[in-house]
# Entry
Amino acid sequence: MKKNELKKFYNRKLKEFKKHNELYYEKSRPAINDAEYDKLKKELLDLENKHNFLKNRYSPDKTIGYTPSKSFEKYNHRVPMLSLSNAFDLEDLKNFEKKILNYLNKNVQFNYSVEPKIDGISASLTYKNKKLEIGVSRGDGKRGEVITENLKTIKDIPLEISDTSFPDEIEIRGEIFIKKKDFLNLKDDFANPRNAASGSLRQKNPNETKKIPLNFIAYTFGYIKNNNFDYQSEFLKNLKKWGFKTNKYNKTLDSIDELAQFHTKFENTRFDLEYDVDGLVYKVNDINLQNRLGFTSNAPRWAIAHKFSAVSANTKILNIDIQVGRTGALTPVAKVEPVNVGGVVVSNATLHNEDEITRKDIRVNDIVKIERAGDVIPHVIEVDRTKRSKNSKIFIFPKKCPSCGSNTVKEYNKTTKKYDAVRRCSNDGFGCERIAIEKIKHFISKDALNIEGLGKKVVENFWELNLIKMPQDIFNLNFNIIRKLDGWGETSVKNLKASIEKAKKTTLQRFIYSIGIRHIGIENAKLLSDNFGNISSFIKIIKNKQFDKLINIDGIGETQLNSLKNFFSDQLNVRIVTELQNVMHIQNQSLVKDGVLKNKSFMFTGKLEGISRAEAKSLVEKNSGITLSNVGKNLNYLVTGSKPTKRKVDKAKTLGVNIISLEDLKKLLN
Ligand code: IVH
# Structure
């Protein structure tokens, strides 16, 4: 492959990876299973390793976790909360040890601390003078959310420690999780135990957290004042002594062979455990060696997670439902006889698309093997043909949309010269009820207009009541009717009004994203909005059908262009956009005038941690600040990274300019 083709190929994969990260971490709605996710990640890393020029700051190596929810106070971790690299087989383990030995010195001897990897969510607890002072979620690894009050409701978390050997200041980290048996009562509300734990922890009201029986197991530390522990195993013993729960299966082992043996044994008994475990964590036991080994960009060199394989069970397909998505995609979902798959009761399994059904010849009443990995929607692995009855019939995928009755189509992709695996409703506008509802749900979703109090269920409800049939109806709701509905009171009506009012004011990027044009995700909406600058130019292009101009935008290709043309060939869509423009205040892209840095000027010197100079500048500008290239009287802040230019710092000092760090700048942005 040529260099630019390779880059394109890589970028496509990276985009896919980003999308799944978002689905998993932000939306708690993963679309692929862990194994598929890991495979995608590995493909990207392999490409980068082979072709150095592909490495960039969005590499899977450098991104972890989800962005904290906006509603909690943020906290910068004193020591980043990193993730772990994964090992899947003996070879990966051997490689792990080989790298350690290369890094240190071949003669060094060490053993491993072995700990079950509970599939929950991590939390950090800072104790000062023996009292729990602050509890924080992991967030993106660098910055988490302050969830102290919620954490305090968990009985396994001691609020005060009496043991005299407890350090004066220590940050203890561990896993918050929910037991499988407790999850059974919650399974209608959450996809799996991990989501239940995470959903519960991020509740605004700690009393809500209290309702869900959460547990905590401690396993490591972040910051410790005067750390004098020599071994991880010794630290674990101390945790127990201080009153924390630790895992009773923790142990130390000496060699890779022993690790592999234990893994096999443990994997066979994992379902007898009270909680979900997705692997074992191996850590170099010697803390001095850990310190010498240090970290790569987002994982320690001294630890690895040895994953278990996915879990499966056999069950019967009762029916095959066809769901219609926002873009008209028809997704088949198997309704199965409820079955326990490694502690989680499963009654739905995705069949992905029409081609998948044909390829595997999946039929109603078939006995199938379904697989669940981590917390993604289970899927059908294979059909047990021996159990199929003689009069079983091939499943005929509907050729008409189950919602509106229109013809369905499989699109032909000119580049790959293949028909799409997905069948779609040809009426991909507001003419199809399911699509229309899904479009409205998208319009109000978090990355779009983010209208709090108007969730998916409310949209369905308002649709039924004819209150909302088009996006613009949201801005013209009849609150006299809503006030009288079940579950609605004065306060909720007032809140809804306020959040709708707030949502009227939005950026051009969000607006373009929210109208839900196929192939125009957040990133492409940004490219477009940067190009148009304001809503009027956007509407002008639409009305004059000048889409071909847009091909010059770097990043916008044929697919996006055709999608835009197609979308606006429907006059109804043109009408929606113009009507929305009339009721909303869509801000010009580059002129968000009243940001928090308004009337403040900034200059950067030195190397900034984890952010390029260009991005730092644009961060300032996005918040209405200005950036200068000289230290002078009109400079308000000099932001210094590592190795700042001494002359600039000195001059700033004489002029009385504020000298701040990148962290300080981020605080200003809060
Ligand atoms: S150590 C830098 N120990 O796994 C070391 N993590 O992929 C990272 N986890 O976010 C943490 N059990 O949520 C560690 N015994 C254990 C663990 C464990 C579960 C989770 C934790 C972390 C993730 C890393």
User: Anything to note?
Assistant: Confidence is low (pLDDT under 50) at residues 64-70. The domain at 74-307 is CATH 3.30.470.30 (D-amino Acid Aminotransferase; Chain A, domain 1). The first strand starts at residue 74 and ends at 76. The longest helix spans residues 3-26.
